[in-house]
Amino acid sequence: MVQKTTLITGASGKLGKAIISQDLKDRILLTPTHHEMDITDIKSVYNYFDKHSVDEVIHCAAIASVGICEKDPIKAISTNSIGTSYLAQASVKKGSRFVYISTDYVYPCEKGPYKETDEIKPNTVYGWTKLGGELSVKLLKNYCIIRTSFFDPNNILFDTAFTDSFCSKLLISEIAKDIILLLKSDFIGTINVGQKRISLYGLYKEHKPQIKPENMPVEGESKRARDSSLDISLWKNVKGELNGN
After folding, report:
1. Calpha distance 95→82 (Å, rounded)
2. Among the listed residues 81, 91, 42, 90, the one whose alpha carbon sits nearest the alpha carbon of residue 61
3. Which one of 72, 148, 218, 239 has the lowest number of neighbouring Cβ atoms within 10 Å?
4. For 60, what's the count of Cα atoms within 13 Å in the CB-facing half-sphere?
């Protein structure tokens, strides 16, 4: 059996590392550094694809900080939207399967849980630029867009969390497993991947018992997600089928 070659962008980031730690012995992994492939430079992307066989792409690389995206929207557009379009273009030439890690922030984040077919209306630069990336990926024949949110339970640096902000965040180890499951599947389309609706306080308290509750501030609230929770009905059905349940 010929091994597939899988390109993982953002391999040095937390999610990239979590994906690499999964059982991928049946794959040849490509994990280029920024120097080896700069996704904001189309020549760099094309040169890398010309030098390597790329059967699959897991695209994790992104500017994921909402604050940084707000301060530097040009950089956010260049990386999250245009960089993704360059990778999509190169993938067309290879016929690669493309798994794009998007975000729950493409939804209005006001009143979840959101279905994949619900209104798309980000309220942050980050959300808009990730949505821009989705548009390019949707032009491919073999793609999977994963709308999700995740966290590292060993790196909860804040001491308070909102009781009135809701999400469907997954442990980073869990989303990594789900990404691989979808990569190896024949699912094509957009899918929400997450857990049941839970407050940020309730979520983080499970992993940091000393964390204290607080309410969302009114000032600047438009840039915060009041409820970005996801309807994961489709994911439950797909995951059940993939696991033979």
Report:
1. 20
2. 81
3. 218
4. 28
The per-residue pLDDT for 224 is 81
111 is written with which tokens?
A: 């009143």
Query: pTM of the predicted model, to two decimals?
Result: 0.96
Residue 124 CA to residue 78 CA, distance in Å, equals 16
Q: What's the number of CA atoms in the CB half-sphere (13 Å) around residue 150?
A: 25
Q: List pLDDT tens digits, range 69-106.
A: 999 999 999 999 999 999 999 999 999 999 999 999 99
- The residue type of 188 is I
Q: How far is CA 186 from CA 97, 103, 115, 156, 203, in A?
A: 9, 21, 21, 35, 32
- pLDDT score of 144 more than 60: yes
- Give the right CATH number for 4-151+170-194 from 2.60.40.640, 3.30.450.40, 3.40.50.720, 3.90.1150.10: 3.40.50.720
Quick one: tokens of 4? Answer: 């597939």
- Token pair 């040095």: residue: 12
